[in-house]
Specification:
It is rod-shaped and about 225 Å long. The protein has one helix at 2-163. With 164 residues, it is mostly helical. 99% of the residues lie in helices and 0% in strands. The chain contains 1 helix and no strands. The longest helix is centred in the middle third of the chain and has 162 residues, at 2-163.
Length: 164
């Protein structure tokens, strides 16, 4: 029994010391684990914040760079459209400017041709009527002369026939 008591006397403080050390080790482990988790979460949060900040900066820079490019694109497009419209308007004006004298000249020539045609037609009609009148008059004169000669000859023939 004295050996058991001696064993228990030695074992009990050893067990208590073991349990104290184990509890201390567990507490230190938990404290270190909590600290590590907190540091991990803090670092993760910092990393996320930095990532978001970098991404926001990149988006802002992209927008800042894209906006002048879009503005320049729109300005160039508007200039090109304006130049296109100006060139088209100039071309239409030049076409009209060239076409108007041609139309006027065409109308003037057409009017001159119509007038000359009408004048020549009137002259031809007048000449036709004059020639027709002259021909009728000559025809009538010749017919009258022929009738007179026919009558004279007939009268002469009757007179001569009666004498014989």
């Amino acid at each position: 029994m004295p050996a058991r008591t001696q064993h228990d006397d030695i074992a009990m403080p050893a067990r208590t010391q073991h349990d104290d050390l184990a509890m201390t080790a567990r507490t230190q482990h938990d404290d270190l684990a909590m600290t590590a988790r907190t540091q991990h979460d803090d670092l993760a949060m910092t990393a996320r914040t930095q990532h978001d900040d970098i991404e926001m900066t990149a988006r802002t820079q992209r927008g800042d760079l894209a906006m002048p490019a879009r503005t320049q694109h729109d300005d160039l497009a508007m200039t090109a459209r304006t130049q296109h419209d100006d060139i088209e308007m100039t071309a239409r004006t030049q076409r009209d400017d060239l076409a108007m004298p041609a139309r006027t000249q065409h109308d003037d020539l057409a009017m001159t041709a119509r007038t000359q045609h009408d004048d020549l037609a009137m002259t031809a009609r007048t000449q036709h009527d004059d020639f027709a009148m002259t021909a009728r008059t000559q025809h009538d004169d010749l017919a009258m002369t022929a009738r007179t000669q026919h009558d004279d000859l007939a009268m002469t023939a009757r007179t001569q026939h009666t004498r014989w």
